[in-house]
């Protein structure tokens, strides 16, 4: 059997994925005039060939465990879900708090959603988030200050990390930390980049409350480097229900699980 063989329908699915970054079972069934079950079988076949990765209701591009997508690519994946997650997360930021945002594309949407907050201090090692926050400060959408952490830049991820970043983080105390991740599973959260994972780990350690923001494509996925276990996390804000098998685990069951998908 030739495992590289694809049907014409499967080739169309891959072309759609290359254009849109994320595809829906329902949309593909309508476009290709077949049943959703047929599309699900195609997606399962293509996932086995590492052509894509299945998520709830559809699929995204396959990145594997060792390669992180370019930041601009990440921003486009699950954009609407990340926006909803970011908007929900921003409502937890209160007047006078010191808050830290890490470098993920989902925390970018938190930066875009902070408003009507007084005397807040936002700390970040994300160049992209810092730019957004600075613009919002200039336009008086919230009141306070923005602190950009020093360190080594990663232009492809628009991030700052490394030993200097970690040293600076050790000197802060945060009311709240908002942490993104490359994957979330029953062992906790993980990321692709060891330096960024290390920075996020320190943010967790130095925060009174920890919020993980992760869209459904991250569920049951593993990246290379552990950020933290569920024992160190207070909230998960996502666009899906907690996986059924997770709810049997006492440590995971104790989490505050916020599903923004319920509001859609």
TrEMBL record:
InterPro entries: Carb_Metab_HTH_regulators, DeoR-like_C, DeoR_HTH, NagB/RpiA_transferase-like, Tscrpt_reg_HTH_DeoR_CS, WH-like_DNA-bd_sf, WH_DNA-bd_sf. Residues 6-61 form the HTH deoR-type domain. Keywords: DNA-binding, Transcription, Transcription regulation. Transmembrane segments: none annotated. SMART domains: DeoRC, HTH_DEOR. GO terms for molecular function: DNA binding. This is DeoR/GlpR family DNA-binding transcription regulator. It comes from Metabacillus rhizosphaerae.
